[in-house]
Amino acid sequence: QVQLEESGGGLVQAGDSLRLSCSVSGQFFVMYAVGWFRQAPGKEREFVAAIARNGDYTDYADSVKGRFTISRDNVANMVYLQMKSLIHEDTANYFCGATFAIGLNSYFTSPHEYAHWGQGTQVAVSS
Question: How crowded is residue 38: how many other Cβ atoms within 10 Å of its Cβ?
Answer without folding.
Answer: 25
